Every structure is written in C-alpha cells, then in structure tokens.
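Write out a record, fold above all:
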Amino acid sequence: MKFMVIVKASHDSEAGKMPDAEMLRSMHAYNEQLFAAGVMQAGEGLHPSSRGARIRFEGEKRTVVDGPFAETKELIAGYWIWECKSLQDAIDWAKKCPNPHNEDSILEIRQIFAPEDFGDIAPDVMAREEEMRREFEARQKK
C-alpha cells in the first residue's frame, strides 16, 4: 500500500525559515532508516505558500489566487511517499519521526489510490495510466 505522509506547515515554515543543521541531520537520519527499510519512495520539503498559487474551479471558469494562504494548520510544508504493509505500519513509522518543526507539529497519513481501487470503471484509462508510469520510470533511468 502506498501512503502520502503530509507534514503540516508551521508559522516558521510559512515564514520561509529554514531548518537548522541539527534538524536537517535528524531528518536525514530518519529518511535513511525509511530508505533502508524500503519504505521511502519520495520526499520533499515545500517552499512557503507565499511562493505558490491556487486555481479555483467554478464550472468552466478558472481563477488564480496567489499565495500566501491563510490558515497555516491547513497548509503543507512537505511530504513523503511511503510503501507500507498497512495504515498501522505507516503510523508506526510516523511515530518515529523527529518533530519536523520547532513547535507543535502534525503529520497526516493518507492512502494513495492504486489502480485496482478503481475496479472496471475505465479499463482503457487504467491501462494507459500504467503505460505512463512505466514511461516515467524509464525516463528517470536515463
């Protein structure tokens, strides 16, 4: 099962404050454990929302809203993609994470849909999605 583990933003991350060397070392050591265990597939930190944008959809209309965005607790500061046996396995790994901020923090774990979750809704679309995944992986190897 694949999971996205979302690091919720903090006031410091939204202010663009970079982690200190100790935090980077702690998080790197944790990432190495995840990688060695075959759990971590990807992970990145994100710039503050002031450097981003949102696209609002209203029927056929599209509206661009530039950051920053309110409600820090709803924003994302970073993420991982993990391969775990179960939600409980992902929770167990998340509980080992160093606190990602120098204040109270939240990690959110969400399972990623797999092709089989869609059943027989649109087999042609699922087949093409799989082809695209293989093409993407082949590009990464070049």
Summary: The helical segments are 11-14, 21-36, 87-95, 123-141. The two ends are 27 Å apart (CA to CA).
